[in-house]
Amino acid sequence: MEFSHQPVLLAETLAALSVRPEGIYLDGTAGGGGHSAAILAQLSSGRLICVDQDPDAIAVLRERFAHQPAVSVVQSNFAAIPAILHQLNIEKVDGVLLDIGVSSHQLDTAERGFSYHYDAPLDMRMQQSGTTAAELVNTLPYQELVHILFAYGEETFARQIARAIERERTKEPIQTTVQLAEIVKAAYPAAKRHDKHPARKTFQALRIAVNHELDRLSEGLDGAFEALSVGGRLAVITFHSLEDRLVKQRMASWCTGCTCPKDFPVCVCGKTPRARLVLKKPAEASAQELAENPRSRSAKLRCCEKVK
What three-state secondary structure class fits 96? Predict the structure, then answer.
C-alpha cells in the first residue's frame, strides 16, 4: 500500500526539535513516515516511536520501518501518549511532533470520504471506526448541526446550510460526499459560490466533529508536554485557525510565570514558567515549498521547550 503524505515544513520542524542523536522522540501523527524518517536519520543510539490512529498508515509504517530496531510503531491516537509510553516502559522523551492535518492519502483516497472533490461514501473517520459523517448529517438536530458548522468550520452560513440539510434528508438519506457538497452549494448565496468551494468549511467542521479533533488535540498537548524531559521540545503543525489558536494559547500558558498583580511587592502565587518558546512566531512554508506542495499553504509550526 502506498501512503502519500508529503511532510510539510520538514526542515523547519527538524531545526525546531533540535534532534539529539541519543534522544527518544515520538511522532504522534506519523502518517506515511516522512517526518519520522527524517528524525530517524538524525539518531544514532536514540529511539523513535511512531504513532498513528489510521490503520492504513500503521500498515505502511510497519513495512517502512520493519528492519529498524530503534523504531516502535503504535496504532493509537496521540491523545493517549502517556499510556503509550507506559506500555513501552518509557518515562520521558526528548521531543514530540504532532502534525495536525489530514494526510494526502486520506484526502486522495475517495472511499475515505474526506474530500468533496470525489463522489464517495460520506465517512471521514480517521480510525475507520465509530460514527460517520453521514450518521451525523442524517440524525443531528438542527441546532447541533448549526453549532458544529459554526464552531468547527467558522461557517458564516451555518444556519442556511443546516436548514438545507434538514430539508433534504427528509426526502432521502444524505449518503455521499457529492450529495452533501451540492446541498451546501445550493444553500450558499449565489454571489459567494465562486470564492472558494462552498462545501470546504462544512467538510472541515464535520471531519473535526467525527474525529473529536479539538478534544483530542487538547488532551494530546497536555500529555505530550508532561511526557517531555526537561530540555525536551514539543513541535506542533496546524492547518487551520481553531487548531493554531489552541496550540498558541496552551504554549503561552506553559510559558507564563508570576500572575500576581504588579503592585504586589513580592510574588505570592509561586508560579514560574514551565516552558520557553523556541519560535517566537510560527514558521510557515517558504515560496519554494508552496510551489512544490500547495497543501502547505495554511501550515503553521509552533514549538516550545520544557524548562521545568
Answer: strand
